[in-house]
Amino acid sequence: MNSLPSQLLRTDFGHEVYDRWYLEHARHNFEAPDFVQKHFPFYEEVLQLTKNDRILDAGCGIGSYTREFARRGYHVVGMDKSPHFLSEAHKITHREGLEIEYVLGDYNEMAFEQPFSVIFFEGSFFYESRGGSFILLKQSHNNLTLDGRLYFVHSNPHIRKQQFPMVNLSEIQKNVYVLEMAEYDEKGGGERCVWVRIDLETQIHYKCDYFNMHLRPHELKDSIVTAGFKDCDFYKKTRN
Ligand SMILES: C[S@@+](CC[C@H](N)C(=O)[O-])C[C@H]1O[C@@H](n2cnc3c(N)ncnc32)[C@H](O)[C@@H]1O
Question: What's the whole-number mean pLDDT along residues 167-184?
């Protein structure tokens, strides 16, 4: 056993330790350009996009989708709560010769002076409770024009829970390990995830745990309508 006293510190999306690991080891969670491009005809069709639209890419990460909107000539703003992801987004955007505004902030608290005609969440629509889903939908509604459209991807709990439990341990550098665990909490109706970074040399460890709730389709529909949206359409989306 190491004689150093150990510390267990908290980290999360937006904190340096978690974000650095994400950028170096979990970058696959940010979609690759060919995957993004493949799905654009679908977005353009279901959202009936026009060049007059003002789009918010909420939870944009390193801007994989934001840049594709911009490449196609749409006016887009990217928003994320991680300064590290946004810094990476700025770098890639600059390298590609594009100009995009990125805003640092929590989408649960968004309050834009000028509303958007489209708010787009791809792999970033997260909430911890029924109340949280309502706040997020209501916030989105408040930041949309009267004819605005909201797009988000939502897991179907019946399918999602088949992917759990999940355990993964990796040595990310000598004597530094990351343990990821996730299980489906039937009672809570969502996935409970734990991420721990164990540093055997410094004995300074980090932990991040979070819960992502998944309402069932009819509950989600109720929440959407209660938040003030007039219509909603469901589409089946798969990774292929
Ligand atoms: C799995 S990544 C997806 C990123 C991007 N949409 C993509 O598909 O490439 C989820 C992103 O949501 C962001 N995020 C999570 N909660 C957020 C919040 N409350 N406000 C703003 N961004 C958030 C994270 O920082 C992260 O960049």
Answer: 97
pLDDT of 31 above 90 = no
140 CA from centroid of ligand 1 (Å): 15
Distance 60 CA to ligand 1 centre (A): 6
Give the closest residue to 143 by CA, choosing from 104, 114, 123: 114
Q: Given this model, what pLDDT does residue 2 score?
A: 59
DSSP per-residue codes, 47-62: TT--TT-EEEEET-TT
Instruction: Give the residue-averaged pLDDT of 92-118.
Output: 97
Which of 81, 85, 106 for a ligand 1 pocket mutation test, highest count of atoms within 8 Å of Cβ? 81
Pocket lining for ligand 1, CB < 6 angstroms: 13, 29-31, 59-61, 64-65, 80-82, 85, 106-108, 122-124, 126
H or E stretch including 120?
Answer: strand 116-121
What 8-state DSSP symbol labels residue 63?
Answer: T
Ligand 1 atom index nearest CA of 121: 6
Dist. CA 83 → ligand 1 center (Å): 11
Q: Which of 145, 172, 149 is nearest to 20 (CA)?
A: 172
- Least-confidence region, from 23-27, 30-34, 120-124: 30-34
Nearest CA to ligand 1 atom 7: 30
> Which fold would CATH assign to domain 31-154+216-226?
Rossmann fold (3.40.50)
Mean pLDDT of 61-79: 97
Give the pLDDT of residue 137: 98
